[in-house]
Amino acid sequence: MSAASDSYDIVVVGAGTAGAFAASTAASEGLDVVVLERKPEEEAGHIACGDAIKGKSTFPEVIDLDYLREESFTNQRIQRAVFENPKTGEELDVPFGQAGAVVDRKRYGEVILEETERAGADIHYDTVVQDVLQDDDGRVIGVRAKRNGDTLTYEAELTVDAAGALSILQDKGDFGDASFDTNVSYSQFCSAYREVVEVPEPVDYEDAIVFKPTEELGYLWYFPRTGTEINAGLGFQMTEPPMKLVEVLKRDMSRRPEFEGATVKDKLGASLPTRRPYDSAVADGFVAVGDAAGHVNPTTGGGIPGAAKSAHWAVKRAIDAVVEGDATEERLWRYNHDVMTDFGKRFAAMDVYNIWGTAHDVDELTDIVTALPAQQLLNAMTKGETSMSLRLKLKTVFETYGHWDTLRELYRVRGIAGELKDHYGRYPERPGAFAGWQERRDSLMDDLYAVSGADPKY
Q: Of 130, 144, 256, 428, which has fewest CB within 10 angstroms of its CB?
């Protein structure tokens, strides 16, 4: 066994969306950057994912987005979401204002890594990171890894954690003296499984992404990559009793006529955060991005847009600090502000509804969801907010007869979600005001737990 040491401006751990966009951003600015990926090169990009995205406008323009679209966007005609009621079989159609897409995740991953290398970054495959290196003051100065039995040391001014959910870097690093969010547990995550299935005939929902609640707190999905290639999967909150994911998916697919005679092309499982974004994702010499920082829509599990944006913002904020050898928590702080005042505030508001849902029966939640007007449901899922005209309010009250107590509770929860979203919009621009911001946020969360009866999540 031998040991080797390399030095870079930035070391990025993980070659998913977050890692690729972080490295592409750094390399395009002339920094010396390396991406460390545990998988072999031929497996890079093979990630369990729902594959649905809003469109190429979601991505920072540090790679060739036209090439990405042409190569990996297999269905660009997604016009609506369909919510299936498992009790009645009824469907609720929610039209989109802007067309979305479904991608071939493997090819998508290959393209963004091609673009990362084209930008000038190094990518080291088969490299398993095992530890975080810190100096006597606690500053992160790189990582230790293994490749083909050899121990490797990568030193850097900045280490970017793009290692995904429940990142090993956060287990190994000591962030006790930093603002970095360590209030993280398995119960804030979702376990997911998906299969890519080829069906004999084109499905009638080629223009839609389909959702169906499960018996536990979670949902099944059917996302058409093409008319005959379907990403079929499901996930459930780890706060709930364990679900036999493969059995539940197979059982539901066996009841759907479109899957008769189907062939499974690929299968994979994963965990993902279904929680609010990390309160702070920075420490001296260290920044977390994408899934590793909770940058995932906690309602839908969509993580590609948050990963791409957060990684780009983090590195853009860090460039001057890295060049000057001063990548301190304070110099990196504006990245936190960028996230929280953009999608972070929406995700935090949406997480309120997740928490409320843990205190209620799935059948009751399904009844209420399917009674909500389509646009209001879409707003709640994507923006964490709802508003209705008087006519819609009266219609909803009529259609939710028998659940009025729960609906009144939901109305109060909606108010808390709105206050929380506003509070995240006032995220402090400097770390000095961070403790006071957290105190007010925690007070709002206490109000939520009191109203909903849900167990504290954080």
A: 130
